[in-house]
Amino acid sequence: MADTPHDPQMPESSTPTPDAAARPAPAAPGSRRAAREAAARAAAAGAASHPVDPAAAHPATAASTPAAPAPDAGAASRPAAATRPAPQNPHRADPPTRAFDFSAEAPAPRSYAAQDAPAMARESYHAALATAERPVEDDAFAQLLSGEDHAVDDVQWITPQPPRKRRRWIGWTITLAVIVALVLGGVWVWNTYTPQLKNLFGTAAPADYPAGKAHGEAIVTVNSGDIPSTISSTLYKAGVTKSSNVFYQMLLDTGQNPTFYPGVYKLQKEMTAKAALSAMADSKNRLDHSVVLPEGLTQSQILQRVSTGLNIKLADLQAAVKNPKDYGVDAPSLEGWLFPALYTFNPGTSAHDVIKTMVDRMKQELSDAGVAAPDQQKILTIASIVQREARQAQDFPKVARVIDNRLAQGMKLQMDSTAQYGYGSLHNGTASSSSAALNDPNPWNTYVHTGLPKGPISSPGAAAIAAALNPAAGNWLYFVTVNMNTGQTVFSSNYADHQKAISQMQAWCKANPNSGC
């Protein structure tokens, strides 16, 4: 049995009276405890004046519910609790006290249904101990230490919140996304609507120079592969146009798609976009010259075109091609070594430099195709025949195969292009060769001589060179073009079939006179 605490001022032999031991210390005025005690005293007084049999009032629960403790006999004689003073803060109300008493007739709260009676029986004892051991200085703190139950309606449920770090990270992410969206939107609006806004408020500068203001001289270079937008920027950098895109925008607005040739143009400063376009279209404003050399031309034809296109004396060009060794070519002539392409040269370029540029280009093509130096002259010779004989690029490998097959069997090539080259007629607008050309003993005439001609008969392009290196598979020995308009060609492996193809060609030529037969 636990020791009962005693008052140090009381003699040890003295025993406290039951009332003194059971009665708790007076409650603080205005506290919840004081309110409950006052309610209990009022209930006890009412019960004394109007006794009620619990079994009669609640017959169903009389047997199972323990009897309530007897009311304190001295409670009626105790003075009533002092009235609780009004709160100092009018905006804050005390929590409400329970609306029921603790008499035997009052129903207990649901949460205390099973424990209320024993708790009330022990309340006096524990309250006395708590009062004797420590003074009550704070009403709320005293209630906590005395074990008194708190009102259910004082509880506040708190909604669980996500961790603060996670909320902070989400907030930063949303803020950053909003900032990025605003920046991107602002850039788009600026790029899209700035010209319109400037025009609307009258702050935009004129996009083009006014007509009639052009002056001075501006040199503009157009390189191969330049597109209109690039040329527009070039004109602006040279001081010709007012902005980098006004020339290109003018082309878009007017629906024009002109061809710009590489070269150096002499224009003026501060020109309108339309004036700049007109000046570039005028050949008089070009300070350099370009020349286009198609595939299949002979050296003589090439020199004539270069002389006309670049304004170089023909005699200077003819002198420049006399010695192939000057360009590292081990061949009797530069026939076949001048690569066909579009060439652009600056003003004052010499005839030697022009020829060297063309020869170097052919060397590069042969090197890229994997042709060894000792084989270059032979490959160019075969490719030059293919270039002149075939009408369609798809037939290039087949013509190369016919050449290889006839050479392998020791047959004469009998190619009209070789006879005409050596004779100097070069078809003269017809596919058929004259009897004089076919019988001329020049070293290029394959109707007279077996094997390849002395050298190339034209300047072949890249496709003909590739065909000479990789002939198509087949046993053809003959071919003839049967339609001069479409270039349709029939290949045969025997002479009888070849004669049938010749008859087909003759029938077409008869039906189509003046068609180059």
TrEMBL record:
GO terms for cellular component: plasma membrane. It is found in: Cell membrane. The keyword Lyase applies. GO terms for biological process: cell wall organization; peptidoglycan biosynthetic process. The chain crosses the membrane at residues 169-190. PANTHER family: ENDOLYTIC MUREIN TRANSGLYCOSYLASE. This is Endolytic murein transglycosylase. The lineage of its organism: Bacteria, Bacillati, Actinomycetota, Actinomycetes, Micrococcales. The gene is mltG.
